[in-house]
Specification:
The chain contains seven helices and 14 strands. The protein is of the alpha+beta class. The protein has a domain of 128 residues: Cytidine Deaminase, domain 2 (3-Layer(aba) Sandwich), CATH 3.40.140.10. The N and C termini lie far apart (47 Å).
Length: 274
């Protein structure tokens, strides 16, 4: 298991080239009014990778094939299977599998899959929901910090989005800068990649801020709660169920952060001045 791969967590270290997330250059017809023109562009890649834990195939990700070590570690952490990298003896990328050996051979894997509305077939577990207790974070943010965090994420993703597009981006922020960022076709995968990168890099997620371009679904909120992140910011909308859970778990959910506007759905006491 290589803990040094991609661990330096300044923004530039997790930047991706179009080739790294692209599935090749494909032709297409671009129409301007009724005038077609033949063009070519890199299209985002979608690949199935099976997570094998202690020699047992467990789940299959449909994902962008970057930062797969982080994806596997973050998924295991967010599912409650591991508490940290010390629980992992070995991790190998052996296409099309990610093979993980845990320190405890008889580790029980959650088995009741909940297929969610996440892009590309996200998975989570009923078992996880009952383990979540309300967050008690005293964290407070200003509106300026919220707007700036979203601006930073969009600026970070913009070059890759212009070149390829078709993916979600998320980041962990301390309120002043982005600490870790990830791209993937599945918005839920971006949070697992962030969680895994933080485990490897020793970066605390407690009392941080998650910023994402994707919808805030139940699964996204579960992962935020597991990471002890009290504030989740999105450019898009939360689902109704996610809002209900956010109230129960004392998580601040902010949607439609665009320019200098936003919708605060829960936990408004964490916004300075409200």
């Amino acid at each position: 298991m290589n803990h040094g791969k991609g661990v330096a967590l300044e923004r530039a270290d997790l930047e991706k080239s179009p080739e790294s997330i692209g599935g090749g250059i494909l032709p297409y017809w671009e129409y301007q009014d009724d005038r077609p023109e033949k063009r070519h562009k890199v299209v985002v890649e979608e690949v199935a990778w099976t997570l094998v834990v202690n020699r047992r195939p467990w789940v299959t990700f449909l994902c962008t094939p970057t930062d797969l070590e982080f994806l596997a570690l973050g998924f295991l952490y967010n599912a409650g299977v591991i508490a940290g990298v010390e629980d992992v003896v070995d991790l190998r990328i052996l296409p099309p599998t990610i093979e993980v050996t845990l320190s405890q051979e008889e580790t029980e894997l959650p088995g009741r899959l909940l297929l969610t509305s996440g892009c590309s077939g996200g998975v989570t577990f009923y078992d996880l929901a009952v383990t979540i207790t309300p967050l008690t974070s005293p964290r407070v943010v200003t509106t300026h910090q919220i707007y700036a965090a979203m601006e930073d994420l969009l600026a970070y993703a913009a070059p890759l989005y212009r070149a390829v597009g078709g993916f979600h981006s998320s980041a962990l922020s301390d309120g002043e800068r982005l600490l870790v960022a990830a791209h993937d076709i599945g918005r839920h995968n971006t949070l697992d990649k962030i969680a895994g990168a933080c485990l490897v890099g020793g970066i605390p997620t407690l009392d941080r801020i998650l910023v994402t371009t994707g919808r805030i679904s139940t699964e996204m909120l579960m992962k935020a709660a597991r990471m002890q992140v009290p504030i989740v910011i999105s450019r898009n909308s939360p689902t109704a169920l996610a809002v209900h859970l956010a109230r129960a778990w004392n998580i601040t959910v902010i949607g439609y952060v665009r320019g200098r506007t936003m919708h605060v759905y829960t936990g408004e006491s964490r916004i300075a001045g409200i």
